[in-house]
């Protein structure tokens, strides 16, 4: 039995690694000024399914 039975999405390890890498890339884009914060937040929300 899963310790998180009411989670909306089941993540596999490869998908979780890709998601963390994508969030890191978004944060670098914001930190360097190449990506507006609002756009990065929208992309991150879409990535995690929120």
Can you describe this structure?
This protein has a domain at about 10-20 and about 30-50. It starts with 12 loop residues before the first helix and ends with a helix. It has helices at about 15-30, 35-50. The chain is an all-alpha fold and about 50 residues long.
Choose one word for the global shape. Answer: elongated
What percent of residues adopt helix (DSSP H or I)? 55-70%
What integer is the average pLDDT?
A: 84
Q: Note poorly predicted spans.
A: none
Output the keywords.
elongated, single chain, 50 residues, mainly alpha, 62% helix
Sequence-ordered SSE layout with sheet pairings:
Blueprint: H1 13-31, H2 37-48
Helix pairs in contact: 1-2
Please sum up the structure shown:
It is built from 2 helices and no strands. By secondary structure, the protein is an all-alpha fold.
